Amino acid sequence: MSRSSSNPAKIRERLAKRQRTLVTPEGVALPLTIASRSARAGALLLDFTILSVTTTVLTLLLIWIASGTVVETELTELPGSTEFLFVVWSLMWFIAWNGYFIFFEMGPRGATPGKRAVGIRVASRAGDRLTPEAVVARNLLRDVELFLPLVFLLTAPSGEAGLAGWAAMLWFLVFLLFPFFNKDAMRAGDLIAGTWVLEVPKTRLDHAISTGGAAAHGSSQLTGAAYRFGDEELAVYGEYELQTLERVLRDGRPEAIEAVAETICRKIGWNPGSGDERAFLEAFYAQLRAKLESDMRFGKRKVDKFA
Amino acid sequence: MKAPSLNIFKRKQEMATAPDIEAATLRSDRFRLQRENEWRRLEEILDRLESGRLRKLSDDDVLALPALYRMAASSLAVARETSLDASTLGYLETLVQRAWFQVYGPRQGLTSWMRKFFGGQLSQSIREIWLDICVALFVMIMGTITGWILVSRNVEWYYSLVPTQFTDTRVPGASREILLESLKVEDSAQGMSAFAAQLFSNNAGVAILAFALGFAFGIPSLMLLVHNMAVLGAMMWLYASVGLHWEFAAWLSVHGTTELFAILLAGAAGMHIGRKMAFPGKKSIMAAAAKGGQRAAQVMIGVVTMLIFAAVLEAFPRQLAGTEARAIIGVFMLLFWLAYFFGYGLGRKRPAS
């Protein structure tokens, strides 16, 4: 791993590219994350799969029903029942392919099943509510953005349409590739509807680390050893390292815990022996956090170990 | 503002397991444990709201939502300044964001939205794109005249203008009887509803494409309108050349006044977005595009509705009614749409959004 990719400042910078801030009427700044283009492409594929499977199943079902309704074989004209099924079938296609996205995005989650599965939703760019008009507007452009470019991509290289075909392909590619040319990853439909697509991370509230184990008692329940760290020992790390340590403790993978404990011991010059790494880390975490948080209350923040 | 009474939360607190607040050594963890129950209750309400099970929500919960949201927001503000627990901070950020979407997203039911939409909003939006409608109308009329003139000068143009599937028996030189036959009245409604459904799906697809192309292309999409209307002009010339102009006009107008009007609106709506982006006025281009796009989307919902009418008219009255009845229906529909779009709710002000 090169140094630039492991540098916390660089990592923060990379993540910040997709970060936007929304200030609620209460004055709380909420971080929003623009959904990645790959997540959106995945959601689209999922939605198309759902749509094709559903419409195919419905078509087969209607054919099956229709085959059951034919009682008189001598009829030269279409029987009324078959005609009715045909009406249902024609309308079904239109409603399914046009209504699916609109219906689900108007719902309380603002997302189609595909979007929901990858954890993204549609939201208004201006920070107000998502109106039905906006949802309709962003979904009306799908033909121009997706199907026509694909048609021209397939036909233009054959040379049948000539120069005009190439020109049309290039022009439609502008719409297909639109999301790659703006920092908010908006497609043309988003642009005219005033919407964007955001990540909706689903996080559960984890247990509080400082209520149990060595973090609470200051000593290991396994060996009874008490870990007390001095100020200069706690001063080597900052908030970034603290939160990395938190993640390691919550994941609870033994090999990661061992490796991290070893790194910290080397850094602060301790040699506590092996076998009690978790208690060591819990104690270190609690004391480092207590120190950083008390500094924080005095307006002193240490972002990472380089700060 | 008076803070809502806190005793509404009591019931939930008893149910949840009491966290060991004293056991927490860190001040920030104690802060978190004291408020955790309210956060969890908010999360539970949000889960139910998002899954659309609105009816299962008790009145207490609905009333508590705004208060719980504000509490979570203030918890987040405090936690940001006092806590370094990444898991709690991440959880609170997600929670407040989710709650914000629900609290500040007052949704209307479909029926109340429809009532507002057809009760004035649609007419308002159509009146707002009048300039684009005028341009599209002008282009369509010019297209028809062009088609007529081209064919009347040189009959060969007819074959290049009118697509082959149209030219069954209706070709230049066909006798009056054959052409009259093509406008005849069917004697039963057999197969007509299937025809209507097909027509609707097809035409609605075309209208949506016309809209999208209007945005994507601007001027070239006007050429598309010109070409389509030139076909119409050519066919008008054909029928007029054997003295059937009145019958043809009636045959066409029964659904044509609705369908052509709808396509006119679709083209105009697409053009409107392009025009708003080219000339945004005092707004930013993005804001102007969003405003124009939402207005155009409303027009498009109206267009699809009109096309449902058009398909029914095309399948039944056009095939089953005589010449006079066709003309009367066609003219009546035109007057109806004009009155509805340009006269309805004219005196009312658009509610501030």
From TrEMBL, chain A:
InterPro entries: RDD. GO terms for cellular component: membrane. Pfam families: RDD. The keyword Transmembrane applies. Keywords: Membrane, Transmembrane, Transmembrane helix. The chain crosses the membrane at residues 44-66, 86-106, 163-181. Signal peptide: none annotated. Residues 35-194 form the RDD domain. Its main location: membrane. The keyword Transmembrane helix applies. It comes from the Bacteria. It is found in: Membrane. It is a multi-pass membrane protein. This is RDD family protein.
TrEMBL record, chain B:
The chain crosses the membrane at residues 129-151, 195-217, 248-274, 295-313, 325-347. This is Stage II sporulation protein M. InterPro entries: SpoIIM-like. Pfam families: SpoIIM. It comes from the Bacteria. Keywords: Membrane, Transmembrane, Transmembrane helix. The keyword Membrane applies.
